[in-house]
Every structure is written in structure tokens, then in C-alpha cells.
From TrEMBL:
Name of the molecule in the record: Heavy metal-binding domain-containing protein
PANTHER family linked: UPF0145 PROTEIN SCO3412, UPF0145 PROTEIN YBJQ
UniProt family annotation: Belongs to the UPF0145 family.
Taxonomy, superkingdom: Bacteria
Species annotation: Acidiferrimicrobium australe
InterPro entries, per the entry: UPF0145_dom_sf, UPF0145_YbjQ-like
Length: 259
């Protein structure tokens, strides 16, 4: 709180800020009509429990899914709270990371980091319907293009699924080792897990009243569970047209010559 209050109170003529934006991103965010307010982050050190699984069955491990989702939500909520302290309208360039330390195999630190920004001459109009700062993982360049096209970022949306992919029995593995063939149980398991993660991400965007999601990326990690348990994470930025905007054909969509 002291750090944020120092950023907020450092002279009105030229306020001090911190940012993890690159130089190009910083200039394009400024060009889009936003001023950086400060680097904001949230952290949650979370213990992830154990869950029984059927060795020979594809199945979601719902307890682990909920743990991974809750831990990220705690980190993001604390990042957003820091942006609120700065009076920001949104957070750009959000990163979600996980760090592991020596104090426990089943514990991890979930981190959310981004740059809080304020819109010049449009206080409050960039906030969500709930009055909270928007969040986005778009780069400064993509954020500039989005704004110039007449779209609003609503929030960083995510969906996750921790899934157990069934093992093959010794006989099946031996029979398949000499033949070229699809491993259908593996294909179906991974397909189902990705679908669950993407559907949950889309549901979050619909709850925000979004028209769509841009910049979607899928991550797959085993973390510390072993080769047959994988987390599928879908992340993107929910968007919708700004009131009165012309959409993708917006006449201001021209890149500056120096980019």
C-alpha cells in the first residue's frame, strides 16, 4: 500500500510510474490515449491437494482443476485491487506465472503482473459494467490496434482443466508398438480436456457481455503430477465494440509511420 500510495502521490505535474512495457509498447499505449500508472501484481501461494484417479480411465480431476483456477483468481483479484488503489481504468500486458519453491512439492506461487493504465479524458468509461478496471494480456501494439479499431477490452478470461489421460495396459502397449495406428484413447482424452478448458473460457467472456475473445492461447503443462496428468489452460482477452464505434472499418486504423 505504501508503494502504491507513493506512486499516486508523487506530484501532480509529472506523476511517477513503473511499468514492464517495452519502449515500443509504452509509446503505443500513450498513443492510444492511456497513461501508465504503475506496475501492479497479485500473488497467492497455494497448496494443491491430491486426488484419486482411475489408472485406466480418461477423467477430469475436478479437485485439482478447482485449485488451479482458485489460485489464479486470487492472484488476479489482488492485482486488480492494486490497480484500484492507483485509480486506474485498466491493466494491460497481464502475465500469469507459476513458481515452485523448496517448501513443498504440492505448493506453488501463482502470480499475476501487469501495467495499470488510465484513459485521458474518459474517466470511468473504460471500466467494466461492474465498475472494475479492465484486464488484458494483449501487447502494447495489439492494444493500440484494438483501441483504434473501436473495440473495448473487457477482461482477461481463462478456462482450465486438469485431466488424467488413461494408461495403456502392458498387452495393448506391446501390440501397438509394432504398428502405425492412432492411439484413440489418448486423442479423445486430450480433445475432451481442451474442449472443457475452451468452453469455460468462453463462458467467462459471455458473462462479461463480450462479443468475442482475441489473442487466445492454449497452454499444456504437467506441473508436478507426472506424465499422465496435464493441465490445459485457455487464456484470452474478451472484447466488444465501443458504443458508437464503427467496428473493424474504423477510419482511424492507420499505423504510425515510426512503427
Amino acid at each position: 500500500m505504501r508503494r502504491l500510495q507513493e506512486l499516486e502521490g508523487r506530484g501532480e505535474q509529472r506523476p511517477f510510474f513503473t511499468s514492464d512495457l517495452s519502449v515500443n509498447e509504452f509509446l503505443l499505449v500513450k498513443e492510444a490515449g492511456f497513461d501508465p500508472r504503475g506496475l501492479v501484481y497479485g500473488s497467492s501461494i497455494y497448496h494443491i491437494g491430491l486426488q484419486r484417479r482411475n489408472w485406466s480411465s480418461n477423467m477430469e480431476l475436478e479437485k485439482l482443476t478447482q485449485a488451479m483456477y482458485t489460485a489464479r483468481e486470487l492472484a488476479m483479484a489482488r492485482m486488480e485491487a492494486e490497480a484500484e488503489v492507483l485509480g486506474a481504468d485498466g491493466i494491460v500486458g497481464v502475465r500469469l506465472d507459476i513458481n515452485y519453491y523448496d517448501w513443498g512439492k504440492h505448493s506453488a506461487e501463482f502470480i499475476a503482473v501487469g501495467t495499470a493504465v488510465s484513459a485521458r479524458g474518459a474517466e470511468g468509461s473504460w471500466r467494466t459494467d461492474e465498475g472494475k478496471p479492465f484486464t488484458s494480456d494483449l501487447s502494447g501494439q495489439d492494444f493500440w490496434t484494438l483501441v483504434q479499431s473501436g473495440y473495448l477490452p473487457l477482461g482477461l478470461v481463462l478456462g482450465t482443466c486438469v485431466y488424467h489421460v488413461a494408461h495403456r495396459g502392458p498387452m495393448a502397449a506391446a501390440l501397438q508398438s509394432m504398428a502405425n495406428r492412432e492411439l484413440e484413447n489418448f486423442t479423445q482424452g486430450l480433445y475432451d480436456a481442451r474442449e472443457l478448458a475452451m468452453t469455460r473460457m468462453q463462458d467467462e467472456a459471455l458473462r462479461l457481455g463480450a462479443e468475442g475473445i482475441v489473442g487466445v492461447h492454449l497452454e499444456e503443462k504437467s506441473h508436478f503430477w507426472g506424465s499422465h496428468v496435464i493441465e490445459f489452460l485457455a487464456v484470452g482477452t474478451a472484447v466488444r465494440p465501443a458504443p458508437g464505434a464503427a467496428g473493424p472499418g474504423h477510419p482511424q486504423l492507420m499505423l504510425p509511420m515510426d512503427t
